[in-house]
Write a structure and sequence with these properties.
It is a single chain. By secondary structure, the protein is an alpha/beta fold. The protein has two domains: 241 residues, Rossmann fold; 160 residues, Rossmann fold (3-Layer(aba) Sandwich). Helix content is 39%, strand content 10%. It is built from 14 helices and eight strands. The strands form two sheets. It has a four-stranded parallel sheet with strand order 2-1-3-4, with helices on both faces. A four-stranded parallel sheet has the order 6-5-7-8, sandwiched between helices. β7, α12 and β8 form a beta-alpha-beta unit. The radius of gyration is 21 Å and the shape is globular. It holds the Pfam family Ferrochelatase.
């Protein structure tokens, strides 16, 4: 889609006078929920069409797409993400029903069926007019927040539903208890598992290290994450994306030590880096970090996929395959902690996030486990810039940033080619 003039672009944006304090929106009478995700192929014949969708407009030939499709090919051409979203949708529906809340849940994807534009049309055709969106991305950056908001803005424009269907979005939930507590349970269990196996091998006091893993992004995008031209905030390492992960990891470690008496050194690492070699991305890569730790005498590794909602392809391949193979090659005892998936606390937390925003069944309290939260309902002016051009955007206070030529087109085009990039 070509860049739009600012007046067109703000049609789907949120007016500042709709906001209450701290970027909150007043509760509304929403009549439907949209679960939005990345999407993924569901068979070998889907892989190349799916990758064409992911890289649309980049001019990347099929030969190159085939070269990066190996992770899907090795898993039957199927990404687990669609089935996981079916299960999450069913879990949300069951939790809503258990609370006596009559809100239908629809599901739409960016890059594979069911596509977001058709889902919005289905919602409208079913008679719904006010929709609250939940995404499968918990943190703040362009790919995990603003791009979803653009997807909705563009879809509303292209389908002719702009002005007919209202779509808002729940806050980023990186530090919501429903997202964090499954990681606390999993990290405690993973740490206990690694220590038990080391003890069984006769090395009960062997050093153990916890690695919190998340998706790497270009450092330019990291710097734009959480930025607000209107309300400047200072973030650790100058990025809300990085700061949110560090704060959540700190809380996980604090709780594990408090509840079990056990702890271990930890660090934040990245995975799925792609793009041109000359373009800087967040580091260190998880495999490089594992090799470095082994060289320092560490014998046990606990891998926590802190950046991810479910065990989709990036977790299955980048962690369960590549990272665990690196550990095995180096003779390290390793355990990979589960993602929240359909954990009862996560599903209940998603429904709590919905209830924060609804007039009926409203939950006024907005729990958060770090000092960074609760995050905004409506993204602040200048947040998570789109450096490739302006698009219609919902749930944002403006869309007047992001206009201009992308000096790193190869990075933009190949970033999405990381096989399994189906969480952002």
């Amino acid at each position: 889609m070509s860049p739009l003039d600012p007046q067109s672009a703000v049609q789907a944006a949120t007016a500042l006078n709709e906001l209450t304090e701290a970027g909150r929106m007043a509760p509304k009478d929403y009549d439907a929920v949209l679960l939005a995700s990345f999407g993924g192929p569901e068979g070998q014949d889907d892989v190349i069409p799916f990758l064409r969708n992911v890289t649309r407009g980049r001019g990347i030939p099929d030969e190159r797409l085939e070269a990066v499709s190996q992770h899907y090919r090795a898993n039957g051409g199927i990404s687990p993400i669609n089935q996981q979203n079916r299960q999450l949708k069913a879990g949300i529906e069951a939790e809503l029903a258990a609370r006596g809340i009559e809100l239908p849940v629809f599901w739409g994807n960016r890059n594979w069926a069911p596509y977001i534009p058709q889902t919005l049309q289905d919602i409208h055709d079913a008679g719904h007019r006010k929709v609250l969106m939940v995404t499968t991305s918990a943190y703040s950056c362009y790919s995990s927040c603003r791009q979803y908001r653009e997807d909705i803005g563009v879809a509303l424009t292209d389908t002719g539903l702009d002005g007919k269907l209202e779509v808002d979005k729940v806050r980023q939930y990186f530090d919501h208890p429903g997202f964090v507590e499954p990681f606390i349970e999993g990290t405690a269990a993973g740490l206990a598992d690694v220590r038990a196996r080391l003890a069984a091998a006769g090395t009960p006091d062997a050093p153990v290290h916890i690695l919190f893993a998340t998706h790497s992004i270009p450092t330019r995008d990291a710097g734009a994450a959480g930025r607000s031209d209107a309300e400047p905030r200072q973030f650790e390492e100058d990025s809300a994306y990085v700061a949110q992960h560090l704060a959540t990891g700190t809380e996980v470690i604090r709780r594990v030590e408090s509840e079990t008496g056990d702890t271990a050194p930890w660090s934040l690492v990245y995975q799925s880096r792609s793009g041109a070699p000359h373009v800087p991305w967040l580091e260190p890569d998880i495999n490089d970090a594992i090799e470095d730790l082994a060289g320092k005498g560490v014998q046990g590794i606990v891998i926590v996929p802190l950046g991810f909602v479910s065990d989709h392809m990036e977790v299955v391949w980048d962690l369960d395959t590549e990272a665990l193979e690196t550990c095995a090659k180096l003779g390290l005892t390793a355990s990979r902690v589960p993602t929240p998936g359909t954990h009862r606390k996560f599903v209940a937390g998603i429904v709590d996030l919905i209830c924060e925003r609804t007039a009926a069944n409203n939950i006024a309290d907005r729990p958060h486990l770090t000092k960074l939260g609760p995050w905004y309902d409506v993204c602040r002016p200048g947040c998570c810039a789109n450096f490739r051009g302006e698009k219609p955007t919902i749930a944002g206070a403006d869309t007047t940033i992001g206009i201009g030529h992308d000096p790193y087109p190869d990075a933009a085009g190949t970033a999405a080619l990381a096989a399994g990039q189906d969480t952002l």
